[in-house]
Amino acid sequence: xxxxxxxxxxxxxxxxxxxxxxxxxxxxxxxxxxxxxxxxxxxxxxxxxxxxxxxxxxxxxxxxxxxxxxxxxxxxxxxxxxxxxxxxxxxxxxxxxxxxxxxxxxxxxxxxxxxxxxxxxxxxxxxxxxxxxxxxxxxxxxxxxxxxxxxxxxxxxxxxxxxxxxxxxxxxxxxxxxxxxxxxxxxxxxxxxxxxxxxxxxxxxxxxxxxxxxxxxxxxxxxxxxxxxxxxxxxxxxxxxxxxxxxxxxxxxxxxxxxxxxxxxxxxxxxxxxxxxxxxxxxxxxxxxxxxxxxxxxxxxxxxxxxxxxxxxxxxxxxxxxxxxxxxxxxxxxxxxxxxxxxxxxxxxxxxxxxxxxxxxxxxxxxxxxxxxxxxxxxxxxxxxxxxxxxxxxxxxxxxxxxxxxxxxxxxxxxxxxxxxxxxxxxxxxxxxxxxxxxxxxxxxxxxxxxxxxxxxxxxxxxxxxxxxxxxxxxxxxxxxxxxxxxxxxxxxxxxxxxxxxx
Length: 503
Hints:
Elements: H1 3-33, H2 54-68, E1 71-76, E2 80-85, H3 88-96, H4 111-114, H5 125-134, H6 140-162, E3 170-171, H7 173-189, H8 202-219, H9 226-229, H10 233-262, H11 265-269, H12 283-289, H13 299-312, H14 315-329, H15 332-346, H16 357-362, H17 364-376, E4 382-386, E5 391-393, E6 396-398, E7 403-407, H18 408-412, H19 453-470, E8 471-475, E9 484-486, E10 490-492, E11 497-502
Parallel strand pairs: 2-7
Antiparallel strand pairs: 1-2, 3-11, 4-7, 5-6, 8-11, 9-10
Helix pairs in contact: 6-7, 6-19, 7-14, 8-10, 10-13, 14-17, 14-19
């Protein structure tokens, strides 16, 4: 065979690859999406130019859902396709499935920081083992011990906010964000970084840099691809941030591991209660000790899960608490009921009381208020699933390769399940019998639901209770209209401003 013939055959093979891809994979996906309405598209771009910013992403999805229903086909560029879903029946099928476990491919942009931890893991044997190992860390006996940490960090928060008492337009988010980072560091790793008093914290900056870069990479065509991203300034920033975050985590893990080695067995036995649960343990202690069927986590896996817990447990609780406080500031009647519940529990002197786990469980109206805040301002308004095998739903085959956007905020704002959805009304959660179970999914649901949701609810209740007992909250002056955006979590691009004064 001549050299020319070889080149010709190689050229033909290269040309046939996209044709093969189209007819074996892409065409099947395109035919599947013919079952669903598609918003008007542009040549080549499809619907992509409707999603130019993080704030446009959220408003566009609401516009599509309102115009086309709860199952919408969105075309992203010349070959990209995604199903935007806020239908409770399909969400129940999707999220309860033990086969559809892969999350959105965009999460890979967090892997330099989080590795293959629970949030990113593909749902295979490693994920199942880790989930089983880590679940006991959220036993109520463990959560009970975290309340003291919630209290001490929120005492600092109250002190900081007291200095701003009388403000008519205060952006509350930075204060809450620093407080929740202090909390997650102490509950996850047993270490204090005190970012509420140390605004120059390198760790705090590293977390913010990684979250910002994740959002940018999901939105940017150029930075989406690793080989192009490596030539950008953000790649250098990411390298520095990951080093700071990993160095700190590794240092804490090494110290904890050494402490465990040095501890004598007779002393260790005294640390266990009747249930066999070690007292005063943080997340890191528990996963260092954890094993299932003789299998424990490797040092690298422990690092991944601690970093995952830091990521998942910081911004979600910060943004949720912030928006709930905004709702209370703008709904005096609800705020008064929350405060009255506090007075019924603690008497007139509600400021200095030391709140316990049992007290937090008794705050039923506050819990409904928290749930309503999670509905109206869903901390994670959208998340994804990747269909990695052909699967049947309602007589239709969903082909391998389909991407699904779970539009949690869409179903939370559906008037079919929540009449007058724009209204902040905690009474919606006094009885949920008539509401489909998958119509409220602030922490996802099913097999891959948020493992730390009980921790999150407890922390949010603790923070909101503390602030309401110490401050009266008011609408911002001048009136503040938030510019909402779907980033790593729901954010307001122009802050979350309220007025407050000491009680």
